[in-house]
Automatic annotation (TrEMBL), chain A:
The chain crosses the membrane at residues 27-49, 70-90, 122-146, 158-181, 208-232, 244-273, 293-317, 329-350, 362-387, 399-425, 437-458, 470-492, 512-536, 603-622, 628-645. It comes from Acidithiobacillus ferrianus. Keywords: Cell membrane, Copper, Electron transport, Heme, Iron, Membrane, Metal-binding, Respiratory chain, Transmembrane, Transmembrane helix, Transport. One of its GO terms (cellular component) is plasma membrane. The lineage of its organism: Bacteria, Pseudomonadati, Pseudomonadota, Acidithiobacillia, Acidithiobacillales. Residues 50-577 form the Cytochrome oxidase subunit I profile domain. It is found in: Cell membrane. The keyword Cell inner membrane does not apply. One of its GO terms (molecular function) is heme binding. It is a multi-pass membrane protein. This is Cytochrome o ubiquinol oxidase subunit I. InterPro entries: Cyt_c_oxase-like_su1_dom (IPR023616), Cyt_c_oxase-like_su1_sf (IPR036927), Cyt_C_Oxase_1 (IPR000883), Cyt_c_Oxase_su1_BS (IPR023615). Gene3D superfamilies: Cytochrome c oxidase-like, subunit I domain.
UniProtKB/TrEMBL annotation, chain B:
Residues 135-247 form the Cytochrome oxidase subunit II copper A binding domain. This is Ubiquinol oxidase subunit II. It comes from Acidithiobacillus ferrianus. The chain crosses the membrane at residues 12-34, 46-72, 92-113, 172-194. GO terms for cellular component: membrane.
Amino acid sequence: MLVDLAGGWNPLVGRLAWSQIPYDNPILAPLFVAVVLGALMLLGLITYYGKWTYLWREWLTTVDHKKLGIMYIIIGLVMLFRGFIDGLMIRTQQAWAVGSQSSGVFGALHGYLTPFHFGQIYSAHGLIMILLAATPLLVGFMNIIVPIQIGARDMAYPYLNALGLWLTAAAGALIMISLFIGDFAHNGWFGYAPIFELQYSPGVGVDYWMWTLQLVALGTTLGGINILSTIIKMRAPGMTWGRLPIFVWASLSANVIALTSFPALQVALALVAADRYLGAHFFTAGLGGNLMLYTNLFWIWGHPEVYFVILPAFGMMSEIFPTFSEKPLFGYVTMVLASIAIAGVSWLVWLHHFFTMGAGPYVNSAFSVATMLVGIPTGVKVFNWAFTMYRGRLTFNAAMLWAIGALFLLLIGGLTGMMLAIPAINYMVHNSVFVVAHFHSMLMVIVYAIFASVIYWFPKVFGFKLDEFWAKTMFWLFSAGTALVFVPMYMLGFMGMTRRLDYVFNTAWQPYLLVMELGIVVYMFSVFAFFALLYVSIRDHAKNRVGADAWGTSRSLEWITHSPVPFYNFAVVPQINARDEAAWRRENGLEHIQPDHYDDIHMPNNTGVAIILGGLSFTLGFALTWRIWWLCLLSLIAIIALVIYRSFKGDPGYILTAAELEKMEQEAIRRASRIDGGHHLRPVRGDGWAQERADLPAAGTLYGLSSPMDHHK
Amino acid sequence: MQVKWRHSLKSGWRYIALAPILLLDGCAGNPYWIFNPKGLMADSDLFYLMVDVAVMGVIVGLTALLVVWFMWRYQKGKNRGAYDPSWSHSNAIEVVVWGIPIIAVGVLSWFAVKGTFEINPYNPTVITKHMKPDDDPVEVDVIATDWQWLFVYPQYHMAVANELVLPARTPVFFRLTSTAVTTTFFIPQLVGMIDVMPGMRTKNALESSHMGSYQGIASDYAGAGTSWMTFKTNILSATDYSQWVRKVQRSPVSMSYAGFNRYADPYINVHHKVVYFSSVQDGLFDHVIDEVMNGKTWPIPPMMTENMVGYLQQQDAEHRD
Ligand SMILES: [Cu+2]
């Protein structure tokens, strides 16, 4: 061993020992039993209904970007729920452990969580919410929507896409297993030097944290490469840069950030690993280490990551506002410029996460001004959404409500963000719950945009709409929870309450903490409403089927193909004529046009390699965490061998013949005309699907559409 | 003139900020420490906070009203405003939507830079510009351990654990470091946060003319004992302060380099124990930084607070209480 380890180690099982299983923990032990029983039941049900082959063929080995996207979103939602439970536990501890007279149970002096457990819970909460909930949810949406919006049949690299998913799944599995075997890091989601060094975190928690981050970073980087290549190389004819849907622009700028910033995180974490495994001194306080180097490296990734998650959310809002305002997006060009500007500035502001480090006033001033510059394009975006509504015809359905909620949260988050950008103010609220309230406002923008998108794009992916009543009920409950949790949190920030306290010394803060506890209970009800939403919508799905244009006022390209989208997306690659292609076709009476003939198409084969690589990566992460060297070596060799094998084998793909395609298309068209009662969709075969229509009003001038005709007259 | 303007802006804002608080808990003190500064540094922080909130509040507030108005006016089926399905561009509006944020950011940048220099922890002009040559500033060396604060007064060769006592109307200059891990030094009503890092030295300063007792906090997570790593800051009059110094100097306890090594072992200060050290070996602050840079650490036992109650019993049994 290159480093001294506290506790035992043996060659066979590394640091693993029975004492690492928290069977005496009154919270984890029952949870473990429940999880095992639940898993057994699920496996039993799959076996009983004989669904293993279906699961393997249709989902686990798929390279279809929509199915991968759906699985990304499922992972994201499961982890969102786990992160929410962590949040509930944090809030309960802080509402309980107030003042020296408060009671304590389960070995805690106050409340029910010892400092060590409390630290693990908020660290897991942060890491999960940002990297295993928000990131997979957004990557999932980009995966599903971007190829359809640009008229592609799949991603540029379908196999790489599957690999990204299964690496993310491996990361999720690794952080989940830390609940039941060993412990998790207590050093916050971003980690501090030197508290994560072996002397101050002797357990395996930091190792779990580090390898989870590595896996998710690798998965997201691969995903970023894929989405960028897809956008650059796979656009349908006529899909010029000036016609790219705004969500695609947002995805493009977000993934430029991902591609350039995630590697910095991976390097930083590799250096942490060198410290903890090899006894190096990159980030130790002594012997030549520099602990602030870690903080710099982390936030060089960490701040761009913030924009990596917020830009797609902005893109989602930019799709939803026009649809339900029945108008093109106001200021398309400035919106694109604003996205690129945000991405550009995002690399230049990382130091605002540690103004209190003690850098000189010139450094702090420079980063302060750079940070405020982000406010300019963000402000422009808000105004553009407002002016999209101006002179519109607004429908306040559930998707629109969530999007408007996101807009108002952005206003609050922007106001408080501009406060934090000024060092003189930052010194007073940095590391206080004010900061926590600020970045939750911003992350809530993402959550709101995601739920808006779930409602908005659900019918495109599954062919039926979600139930409006439960979607709205969930919105109002969720918003009440948001207000009850975060308004008191802002107030506590001005009272001077600092973050991450597992014991609250000031009893004057208790009333506010109790209101926040009430808020988290209201959040819990919104989670129930979400389950009800899924149940009711699936039960009534036959009544809520939709045609290609699910909302009747949709604008971008994904709305001209069938709902649900067939696995080949477009039977014939469409010709793009305008920026808002679906709206343009509707306005020119082309919405019924179907392709006049079909050709053979080339599709990628499924592969089991990606999920096996995911499983091996999980094994590698677990073995590294527990320092089981033989298993590390074995899984690493297997990974390398499999990657080499797959590279030489490649995938020739397969041909879907024109005849098969035509049969499936006829079926889809018949289904669609039944839903619409033959009224909305009268399929006409002819020019206009894949041919340029020079006879019709020209395709979009620089600003917006050039055809002002009102088809509702 | 500028001072007067600042003053009225401050009191006006305070009045508004106080309104909801007065409704909540009558006149029982102001729990909003950030709005109730008692020192020059915190005062200056609040001024910039108000400027920023004033500028951004107007923009954000008007934008919110604009959105609500559009939502009301253009709701489908209400026919309140004319529908224009193709309107998506206006040069005039574009100029305004870029212009407003650019102007706001420009104005705030000016204040941001000004404020950064004014309360620069290493040379806060808000304090130094008022200093007279015969002013005798107090120096305090702050050493954070896991999880206590040691305040060394090199001018008096004495130290106090977990309590900071300072004279009113006197500039105070801090040098700060830490033994084991990083945390942050914060007295909400007196001075903003500054990181304390092992093997490094940061600086901060404060000056207050308000006698009283103010809460000090370790505001960055430093491990199991962080929540109990608090200290009271008492601002005393000149006479009370010299009496207090004499009291500390009468303490039977003293601290050597070796004694410090034992003192710096992990200790959760749940009883808010305050210790006076009548004498301290000279150069302790620099000695600690040197030791840490040469690789000294104060490791934490594995799972130390897996059972917090049990750990505290053990801590008491070791007579470190
Ligand atoms: Cu940032």
